[in-house]
Write a structure and sequence with these properties.
about 450 residues; alpha/beta; Adenylosuccinate Synthetase, Chain A, domain 3; Adenylosuccinate Synthetase, subunit A, domain 2; four-stranded mixed sheet; 19 strands; about 30% helix; globular; disordered C terminus
Length: about 450
């Protein structure tokens, strides 16, 4: 297998964890390169459901090196909860490593995020996990990195400098302020929590793996990218394929493939434009069949038809080389399926076949649809692309034409076995028995 980046090609929640989990079987090293515990990845293996927020989902294989890169932000409490649950499920974490350059989400980041999200003037639909404020402090150069926890000579001075800024901000919102002693105590707890996993010789780790197979795992989705997404309704990092080079420590020449994971429809959590959104019985039906409720927040996701306009844009700026289409089975009982192929401006009738990046004009846009006949068959037991119903292949072929990318993987259920490999190189990689796949 070539070095591959797995990215969300929509607004997150596309099923990246399952694809990452499957591809991780043939990788030597799996790197989570951006985001934090605002991500929610679910993997079903051997009839057990595993939920990931920050730990790379490839950790299920036990013999892999799983690296949380410098581009991530880590909330210690959430990290502790996650590893505790995984260990209780029997997951071997001996291969888990953390970059000392990763940033730390502090309690005041959570408080500030919650305050802003509860303020209508600032609300953008975040998960209130402190991600934005952590990245803000990182770029303002007043954040803490994992390595700072072990720099006893300078930690106290850094905390004093940070508190001189943060306490003023906290006070302005009538939020709890922190003393130096409180912060030092917290940092001592965090140092012990991370100690078994921090990889201070991470450069050697990367050198040792540079000639091996590497899988880069992103969080959120391309349309939530801080630079190219539906700004300001975005995350605070770069989920796009190019972000893997920045957040991992490997240069762009190390990347061979970028697989964009997309649902056969579209979902979104939080605020922001969504031209093909369905606020009707069909939207509710997709939500119920697809179990579209957030892994991290439990919030019901907004649902809509597949948006080829957005996807074509995502393919460009995300650097995608192929698509993995998930949750195709959600449409098993749909007589008709729509695909958004263009936008129409209700003010002047202009048709857009490209994605307008001024998101505040999207309220004037309505979707232009093509309608396809549903297959009205259960896809969950189908193992090969050739055995898919004719109507299913017509639908997938049209998505390929509209987006300009081949579909390499099709998912027809949550389990590892419910995966169809269309690309020849993937067929060869996964030619072993299904029992071996579950091993």
């Amino acid at each position: 297998m070539k070095n591959t980046v797995v990215v969300g090609a929509q607004w997150g929640d596309e099923g990246k964890a399952k694809i990452t989990d499957i591809l991780a079987r043939k990788a030597d090293m799996i790197i989570r390169y951006q985001g934090g515990c605002n991500a929610g990845h679910t993997v079903v293996a051997n009839n057990i459901t595993y939920k990931f927020h920050l730990v790379p989902s490839g950790v299920l294989y036990g013999n892999k090196t799983c690296f949380i890169g410098a581009g991530t932000v880590i909330y210690p409490k959430a990290f502790k909860d996650e590893i505790t649950e995984l260990m209780a499920q029997g997951v071997n974490l001996s291969g888990l490593k953390i970059s000392p350059l990763a940033s730390i989400t502090m309690p005041y980041h959570i408080e500030l995020d919650g305050y802003k999200e509860n303020n209508d003037n600032c609300k953008i639909g975040t998960t209130k996990k402190g991600i934005g404020p952590t990245y803000t402090d990182k770029y303002a150069r007043i954040g803490l990195k994992i390595q700072d926890l072990y720099s006893t000579d300078t930690l106290g001075e850094k905390i004093e400098n940070i508190l001189s800024v943060k306490n003023r901000e906290l006070a302005s919102h009538n939020l709890k302020q922190y003393t130096k002693d409180e912060m030092l105590s917290l940092c001592n707890e965090y140092a012990e929590l991370f100690r078994p996993y921090v990889c201070f010789d991470w450069q050697n780790l990367l050198f040792e793996n540079k000639d091996k197979t590497i899988l880069f795992e992103g969080a959120q989705g391309v349309m939530l990218d801080i630079d190219y997404g539906t700004y300001p309704f975005v995350t605070s990092s770069n989920p796009i394929g190019g972000g893997a080079a920045v957040g991992s420590g490997f240069g762009p020449k190390m990347i061979d493939e970028v697989i964009g994971v997309a649902k056969a429809y579209v979902t979104r959590v939080g605020e922001g434009p969504f031209v093909s959104e369905l606020n009707d019985e069909t939207g509710n039906l997709i939500r119920e069949i697809g179990h579209e409720f957030g892994t991290t927040t439990g919030r019901p996701r907004r649902t809509g038809w597949f948006d080829a306009v957005t996807m074509k844009y995502a393919a460009l700026i995300g650097g995608l080389t192929s698509l993995a289409i998930t949750k195709l089975d959600v449409f098993d009982k749909f007589e008709e399926i729509n695909v958004c192929v263009a936008y129409k401006d209700t003010r002047n009738g202009q048709i857009y076949d490209y994605y307008p990046t001024d998101v505040f004009m999207h309220k004037y846009l309505e979707p232009v649809y093509e309608t396809y006949k549903g297959w009205m068959k259960d896809l969950s037991e189908i193992k090969t692309y050739e055995d898919l119903p004719y109507e299913t292949k017509v639908y997938l072929n049209r998505l390929e034409e509209l987006v300009g990318l081949p579909v390499s993987i099709v998912s027809v259920g949550p389990d590892r076995e419910q995966t169809i490999y269309k690309a020849e190189y993937l067929k060869e990689i996964f030619s072993e028995s299904l029992n071996s796949l579950n091993g």
